[in-house]
């Protein structure tokens, strides 16, 4: 399933900057960055659970926010892009 992960981390102190880097790193392990604080993650149900748990451990619920949008397996119908699209199809053929 495709999950869009969006976060907002308060970075006015070193702890916030550290959280921001850690959250971005976790998201990069599961998907690809499409905006500064937005990642498209193509995950199985088990991977989704792992991603959610890791992000919950990093976030400071008093200062930061995480949003998850579940686009499901038919995500192509729910996505429109205007401007430069540097995306790869996570279900497509990948050549090296």
The CATH architecture name reads 2-Layer Sandwich
Count of DSSP E strands?
Answer: 4
Indicate the mean pLDDT. 85
SSE series: EHEEHE
How much beta, percentage-wise? 25-35%
Task: Please characterize this protein's 3D structure.
By secondary structure, this protein is of the alpha+beta class. It has a single domain, classed as Alpha-Beta Plaits (2-Layer Sandwich). Helix content is 32%, strand content 26%. The protein is built from two helices and four strands, in the order βαββαβ. Strands 2-3-1-4 form a four-stranded antiparallel sheet, with helices on one face. A hairpin with a 2-residue loop joins strand 2 (31-35) and strand 3 (38-42). It is globular, with a radius of gyration of 14 Å.
Which keywords apply here?
alpha+beta; globular; 4 strands; 96 residues; 2 helices; four-stranded antiparallel sheet; Alpha-Beta Plaits
Write the layout of secondary structure elements.
Blueprint: E1 2-8, H1 14-30, E2 31-35, E3 38-42, H2 45-58, E4 65-72
Antiparallel strand pairs: 1-3, 1-4, 2-3
Describe this structure in a few short sentences.
With 96 residues, the chain is of the alpha+beta class. Helices cover 32% and strands 26% of the residues.
């Amino acid at each position: 399933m495709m999950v869009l992960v969006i976060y907002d981390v308060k970075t006015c102190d070193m702890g916030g900057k550290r959280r921001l880097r850690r959250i971005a790193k976790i998201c990069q392990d599961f998907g690809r960055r499409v905006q500064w604080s937005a990642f498209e993650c193509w995950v199985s149900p088990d991977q989704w659970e792992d991603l959610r748990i890791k992000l919950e451990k990093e976030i400071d619920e008093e200062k930061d926010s995480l949003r998850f949008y579940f686009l499901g397996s038919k995500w192509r119908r729910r996505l429109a892009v205007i401007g430069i699209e540097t995306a790869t199809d996570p279900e497509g053929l990948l050549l090296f």
